[in-house]
TrEMBL record:
Transmembrane segments: none annotated. Belongs to the FAH family. This is Fumarylacetoacetate hydrolase family protein. It comes from the Bacteria. The lineage of its organism: Bacteria, Pseudomonadati, Pseudomonadota, Alphaproteobacteria, Rhodobacterales.
Length: 294
């Protein structure tokens, strides 16, 4: 199934997408709700709706404004340094254990919404990533069982303010500026993709300029290993989000000069079979200057 959570004139709903048309599942059953959590917590719900979906009215996907697939995830865990060539371009040693960090909800935004270059720095970078949505809770999950805990896969742009990421050994500031992590718009269930979403082309671009181009098969730690590793130290809950790292080609490593995202551009992250997460870049209004002007 291909899902889109989004807004229309009637409110926010969960849609089932087929080509360019979408059926409002929330209108078919109130248990679906306004994000994917209804379907995540009630695994058989979508099956019970299939007979209604065939006769239900549809709307053009273009008429839907994307919203976050999960409005309030419990945790957002991100993996860094998961592609060898990206590790090398950043000047790091290849680790024995993955680099992991967390994002807060205010840093997240739906696909299509503006990604904000903060007033504090012009070093806004892009990172194309596969993101998974946890469907079933678990702790100490084995690699063999890991994929049973995945509800679906989506696209993520781990927008990073490099100047602040490098201020300390901890990456938290640079990874948590408001409205820098774009998600969606589509979520694909595992049966729609290769096992573990491996073997998919992953790319970032601005217009005709290709910034990153790789394949999810090149990840050092695959989805099974990522889930097993994270669940060794924390309980994963339904609706949690896990980002799986970015391939080489990020802006800070471009030669001879870094390639930062600039206001007026639109950055696109595309993963084969899942879709395109597009974000227009805007400048944050400097709060200090605004006060001074008033």
């Amino acid at each position: 199934m291909k899902y889109l959570v989004g807004q229309t004139s009637t409110g926010t709903a969960v849609f089932s997408v087929n080509d360019g048309n979408a059926v409002n599942l929330s209108a078919l059953d109130e248990r679906v709700g306004e994000d994917l959590m209804g379907l995540i917590k009630t695994p058989g719900l979508v099956e019970s709706l299939k007979s209604q979906m065939s006769d239900a009215p549809s709307v053009p996907v273009s008429s839907i404004t994307p919203a976050l697939p999960v409005k309030a995830p419990g945790v957002i865990i991100c993996m860094g340094l998961n592609y060898v060539e990206h590790i090398k371009e950043g000047g790091y040693d290849i680790p024995d254990y993955p680099a992991l960090f967390m994002r807060g909800r205010n840093s997240m935004m739906p696909a299509g919404a503006p990604m904000v270059r903060p007033a504090a720095s012009e070093t806004l970078d892009y990172e194309a990533e596969l993101m998974l949505i946890v469907g079933k809770a678990g702790r100490h999950i084995s690699e063999d069982d890991a994929l049973d805990h995945v509800f679906g896969y989506t696209v993520f742009n781990d927008g990073s303010v490099r100047e602040y990421q490098r201020k300390t050994h901890q990456w938290t500031p640079g990874k948590n500026f408001d409205n820098t992590g774009a998600v969606g718009p589509y979520t694909l269930t595992p049966d729609e993709l290769p096992e573990g979403a491996s073997g998919l082309k992953i790319e970032s671009r601005v217009g005709d300029e290709i910034l990153q181009s790789s394949n999810t098969a090149n990840m050092i730690w695959n989805v099974r290993q990522i889930i097993a590793t994270i669940s060794a130290y924390t309980t994963l809950e339904p609706g949690d989000l896990i980002a799986t790292g970015t391939p080489p080609g990020v802006g800070h490593a471009k030669k001879p000069n870094p390639r930062w995202l600039r206001p007026g551009e639109t950055v696109e992250i595309e993963i084969e079979g899942i879709g395109i997460c597009a974000s227009p870049i805007v400048d944050e209004t400097d709060p200090g200057k605004k006060v001074a002007a008033e």
